[in-house]
Amino acid sequence: MIRALKVALVQMSVGFDKKKNIQVAVNAIYEAKKNGAQLVALPECFNSPYGTKYFDEYSERVPAGETCAALSKAAADTGMCVVGGTMPEKCDSRLYNTCTVWDPKGTMIASHRKAHLFDIDIPGKITFRESESLSAGNKITTFSYCGVKIGIGICYDIRFVEMATLMAKEGCSFLIYPAAFNMTTGPKHWELLGRARANDLQLYVALVSPARDPKADYVAWGHTMLIDPWAKVEASLDEKPGLLYGTIDTKVVQDVRSQIPIRMQRRTDMYETVNKTKS
What we know:
By secondary structure, the chain is an alpha/beta fold. The protein has helices at residues 18-34, 52-58, 66-78, 161-169, 185-201, 250-259, 262-265; strands at 4-11, 39-41, 81-83, 87-91, 94-102, 108-113, 119-122, 126-129, 141-145, 148-152, 174-178, 204-208, 225-227, 233-236, 242-249. A hairpin with a 3-residue loop joins strand 7 and strand 8 (126-129). The protein is globular.
């Protein structure tokens, strides 16, 4: 077990060339290794343009597809844990928005299918319905690496505090959200939601976005950031491509939770949050 885990968050440009997208991601993984990272996380839809009309074309089987093969090899070559952002996954006749996680031997140790589909309608601003092409996942996803328990959510999942609460109850000190907020919700809620989850649950939160492409059908907000258990933004990027580095310090998590002991003060005689997939 280690006290501190050095992480790298990749904010990369995503275009129409799938092979190029994969190569850009792999190059970023190797760069993160050179700069001392032990875990690297990619953004949402890093191998595909974000849009319901693209998901089927860019989808692949997990873990049999070319994207998974590239992530597995990069993890094994670098000896890092790779949180593979998300990709469109095809399973039988269904499509999912899926995050895969690879250990330093290149073995897939976890996968999370986006549980809350992004169906919104803000008149005059944005209308988007992931449910037109995607199916929803139905489980809470956590894994352990170097003694740190980590939870995975995808973009819209962050708006549902119950899901984050369950990951914290399962022992997580760090939540990673590959996400692509847009130019309407990004300025309003991106940082707010990340800091809220960090503050409510007294843990680290990473928000990992693609870089902004003003010419894309769906324009991402960017602003990848790492937030500490005091709800302070430790580091952040702007809208352009880049790598953000930070450290997950488990002692900080312990200190915050001991100094403000809300976890022991919850009134479970009045309320409770339950993981129904385990019942």
